[in-house]
């Protein structure tokens, strides 16, 4: 090692770091402590949030088009934000049309909650807890701290890598940067939970809403992971969130720091009435699965999906993972005037690579297919491309990945899936709809089994009903209480 060179570099790096820290520390509005946030001053936060707002909406499937629900969430959010330590921020609340369970905040008070999160919550107090947690991130300027620390870490990585002359140095230091920047730190998440409890107490909502939602979310995700045949995601080294069970315990402990609430506000029935009729899972305009069939009424096609397959629906494409590493990806492509499916495959898509296109029939639609040999993760595989003549200006494409050595049965599964592709009838397009949240009041004699029979899902009715309502097998059914079901 060139010790002299290394020491000079280290002195330079520390000098640069010192300059940043001297001018970049601000007082945390929540704790009063000085923290390094200088690379995102408060005056810039609103501009940063506004610049990312449209991209977030696009990424999460758009805004949920129900103004009553939007107004309701905003009303609760503003009620909680009134108790934030930062009243210099204009808080904005948006419900995203996504089935993913998620809520997050951008700098400048842009706070988002997904439709999937609303489905998991069981009371207004739980929703208030979610919004309070995100307001807490804004109040404590966690985004500014995370951004500033990340930029400084990357700067240090670049300086040291250039001086040491080893790319591995940059990669090693970059790992630390990615680990820190992947999400909020454990301390920041804990502090946001604590602030959420604080705002619940000040606004009169049941402080148990925080721990109740975290517990319900953990149960919901665990059950759905089991149904899909996946291992539930717990805490890992590369996750900067504390494990959910730990957060439940911490939030309950935090409640002890506040006066006992004589009549805490929960508003269970008001909340459930507001989300009644809300789509569950994918929405009508996104395409959805009902009884092992994927329907996209807005575009007008449908196809079968084997129950064991993993399905991932994004606005730009659909990805379906079968057995033994087989994958089918479906998307749409522009069709030039008069271009046939064979011409498209050979001249535009594969550009002469692979086998000569072969004309096939797809339930009355013109189509062509060709095969190309590729390497995926340094392993040989076959990709079969299918171009379907969907309209005068659009192709629907299927790309089927078949690893070498995949069994005949695994390949046949994907063949059946691809050949089940068809146009929906006009009647189907009008009548078929995604699952929706409905409500049912428990009567004398009801239990998990009787109530779950009302769930119009293909499998695990009891488990899905319990997870949707935050119930365990030991939770008694209360006569007269309203429960969520899927229809």
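^ structure tokens above, recovered residues below v
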């Amino acid at each position: 090692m060139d010790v002299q060179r290394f020491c000079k570099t280290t002195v330079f790096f520390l000098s640069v770091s010192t300059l940043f820290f001297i001018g970049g520390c601000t007082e945390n509005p929540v704790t009063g402590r000085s923290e390094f946030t200088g690379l995102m001053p408060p005056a810039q936060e609103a501009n940063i949030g506004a610049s990312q707002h449209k991209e977030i909406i696009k990424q999460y499937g758009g805004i949920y088009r129900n103004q009553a629900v939007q107004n309701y969430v905003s009303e609760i959010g503003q009620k909680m934000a009134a108790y934030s330590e930062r009243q210099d921020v204009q808080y904005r609340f948006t419900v995203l049309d996504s089935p993913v369970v998620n809520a997050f905040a951008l700098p400048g008070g842009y706070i988002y909650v997904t439709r999937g999160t609303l489905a998991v919550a069981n009371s207004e107090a739980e929703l208030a807890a979610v919004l309070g947690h995100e307001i807490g991130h804004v109040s404590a300027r966690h985004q500014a701290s995370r951004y500033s620390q990340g930029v400084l870490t990357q700067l240090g990585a670049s300086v040291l890598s250039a001086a040491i002359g080893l790319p591995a140095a940059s990669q090693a230091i970059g790992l630390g940067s990615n680990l820190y920047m992947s999400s909020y730190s454990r301390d920041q998440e804990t502090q946001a939970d604590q602030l959420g409890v604080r705002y619940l107490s000040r606004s009169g909502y049941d402080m148990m809403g925080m721990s109740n939602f975290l517990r319900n979310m953990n149960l919901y995700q665990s059950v759905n992971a089991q149904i899909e045949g996946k291992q539930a995601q717990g805490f890992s080294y590369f996750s900067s969130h504390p494990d959910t069970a730990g957060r439940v315990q911490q939030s309950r402990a935090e409640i002890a720091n506040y006066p006992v609430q004589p009549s805490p506000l929960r508003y269970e029935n008001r909340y459930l009435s507001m989300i009644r009729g809300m789509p569950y899972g994918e929405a009508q305009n996104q395409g959805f699965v009902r009884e092992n069939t994927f329907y996209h009424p807005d575009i007008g096609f449908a196809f079968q999906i084997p129950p064991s397959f993993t399905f991932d629906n994004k606005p730009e494409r659909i990805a379906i993972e079968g057995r033994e590493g087989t994958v089918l990806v479906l998307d749409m492509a522009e069709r030039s005037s008069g271009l046939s499916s064979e011409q498209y495959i050979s001249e535009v898509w594969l550009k002469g690579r692979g086998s000569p296109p072969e004309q096939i029939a797809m339930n009355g639609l013109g189509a062509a297919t060709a095969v190309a040999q590729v390497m995926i993760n340094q392993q040989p595989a076959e990709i079969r491309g299918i171009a379907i003549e969907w309209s005068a200006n659009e192709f629907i494409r299927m790309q089927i990945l078949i690893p070498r050595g995949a069994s005949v049965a695994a390949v046949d599964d994907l063949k059946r899936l691809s050949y089940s592709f068809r146009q929906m009838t006009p009647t189907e397009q009008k009548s078929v709809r995604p699952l929706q949240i409905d409500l049912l009041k428990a009567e004398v004699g009801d239990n998990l089994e009787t109530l779950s029979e009302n769930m119009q899902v293909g499998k695990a009715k009891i488990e899905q009903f319990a997870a949707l309502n935050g119930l365990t097998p030991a939770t008694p059914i209360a006569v007269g209480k309203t429960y969520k079901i899927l229809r």
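The two ends are 68 Å apart (CA to CA).
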